[in-house]
Amino acid sequence: MKLLAMISLAILSFVAVFAGILAATGQLSMDTVDQILGRGEAVEPAPAVEAPDEVDGLVRALREREQTLAERAARLEERERRLTATERELMELREEVENLLDQLTETLAQREEDREQRLQEVAESLAGMRPGNAADTVSELDPSIAARVLSLMDQRDRGKVLDEMEPGMAASLLSELQR
User: Fold this and answer.
1) I need a labelling partner for 145 at 20 to 30 A (CA). Which of 101, 113, 118, 126 fits?
2) pLDDT in tens, 44-71
3) What's the per-residue H, E or C state across the chain?
4) What pLDDT, in 10s, does the model give residues 87-114?
5) Stretch among 9-13, 57-61, 157-161 having the lowest mean pLDDT
6) DSSP string for residues in 59-108
7) Which residues are within 8 A (CB) of 32 and not within 5 positions of it... i.e. 6 or more apart?
8) CA distance 66 to 84
9) Cα–Cα distance between 156 and 153 in angstroms, integer?
10) How far apart, in whole angstroms, are the C-alpha atoms of residue 21 and residue 19?
């Protein structure tokens, strides 16, 4: 029974493939079915008449299309190559900018550290002076720098210097210290 089913399946598959081939080639019609089943007279298909001008024109158009596509593919490859090169250059520039930014950040941090060190030295120098002389010197400084220097001084020394200053100047520097 299984053998019979397998043989039937093989025959049906062959018929379906054969019908598919006929349909794909445009040969499947009622006349063709009748001819296969042996029901009608054998009708010879009409010989295909080829128009040489049409075929040549189609071949020429196909070749032109292939050439156009090949040129387009070449342009696309060239564009892709340029884009890849540009992308590589941009990545290199980005890396260079990042390196420069890191260097700049380091330089600024070092300058700020140096500035703080110099201000600390000024504060220590002022603390070693007599309060009157230190007050005169601080009064001559830019108010923001004077406030920063005073903030770096010991509280007792800062009080002595502020005590020797004019009250208006001392009040201005104290305001600046609170910022």
Assistant:
1) 101
2) 555 555 556 788 888 898 999 999 999 9
3) CHHHHHHHHHHHHHHHHHHHHHHHHCCCCHHHHHHHHCCCCCCCCCCCCCCHHHHHHHHHHHHHHHHHHHHHHHHHHHHHHHHHHHHHHHHHHHHHHHHHHHHHHHHHHHHHHHHHHHHHHHHHHHHHCCHHHHHHHHHHCCHHHHHHHHHHCCHHHHHHHHHHCCHHHHHHHHHHHHC
4) 999 999 999 999 999 999 999 999 999 9
5) 9-13
6) HHHHHHHHHHHHHHHHHHHHHHHHHHHHHHHHHHHHHHHHHHHHHHHHHH
7) 22
8) 27
9) 8
10) 5
User: Residue 37 — pLDDT band, cuts 50, 70, 90?
Assistant: low
| Placement of tokens 């019908």 in the chain | 19
The answer to whether the beta carbons of residues 128 and 163 sit under 8 Å apart is no
How far, CA to CA in Å, does 160 sit from each of 73, 108, 136, 154? Answer: 85, 34, 12, 10
Taking Cα atoms as reference points, which of 25, 43, 26 lies closest to residue 34? Answer: 43
